[in-house]
Write a structure and sequence with these properties.
With 181 residues, this protein is an alpha/beta fold. The protein has one domain. The protein contains five helices and four strands; from the N terminus they run H-H-E-H-E-H-E-H-E. Strand 2, helix 4 and strand 3 form a beta-alpha-beta unit. The termini are far apart.
């Protein structure tokens, strides 16, 4: 019963905060440069991280942050839940996330997500998606904005082996690309 109550409370805060941050972001911040818009939208990510800790008891410990490059870089992450998208977008900021373009059409969530200037790709057209990722990714890197990619292309269960998108080996041609493990 307590678990159900916590879940309902978490999702209530989650939904209300999406509506709030998306609406206020569009109304007040859509005309500002990327750095200002993204900082505002990242407040939502911070809120979700805080809300998950407060309501659900989620705790995060980052190990190895000192190994991240100082300049912009391409980050690859396993995609196992919604959690890493919120956390990594905040933690690696400034970062542009590569995502399926359908997410941008979701009411409120997608509208706010547009303000963060993601690289929205059409997964139905892999060749075009790769070209977009490379073109826009290089532009972001040149503007000191890192790029976050989930190489499986979709969520996988924790611990499950997955196939990576065929474009991942192409990433080596991005300027400044280095593989960190």
């Amino acid at each position: 019963m307590l678990l159900t109550l916590r879940m309902v409370l978490f999702y209530l805060g989650y939904l209300l905060s999406i509506v709030w941050f998306s609406t206020t972001g569009i109304v007040f911040f859509s005309f500002f440069p990327y750095r200002i818009r993204s900082r505002y939208i990242l407040l939502w990510n911070r809120f979700i991280i805080f809300w998950a800790a407060l309501i659900c008891g989620v705790r995060v410990k980052v190990i190895g942050a000192e190994n991240l490059p100082k300049g912009p870089y391409v980050a690859l992450s396993k995609h196992q839940s919604q959690w890493e998208t919120y956390f990594l977008q905040y933690f690696l900021s400034p970062v542009s996330i590569v995502l399926k373009r359908e997410l941008l059409n979701l009411p409120f969530f997608g509208w706010g997500l547009r303000l963060a200037n993601p690289i929205a790709i059409d997964r139905g057209n892999p060749k075009q998606a790769l070209k977009q990722t490379l073109d826009k990714g290089c532009k972001h890197l040149a503007n000191n904005i890192s790029v976050l990619i989930f190489p499986e292309g979709t969520r996988t269960k924790p611990g499950q082996d997955s196939k990576y998108a065929p474009a991942v080996p192409i990433l080596q041609w991005l300027p400044g690309y280095r593989l960190y493990r």
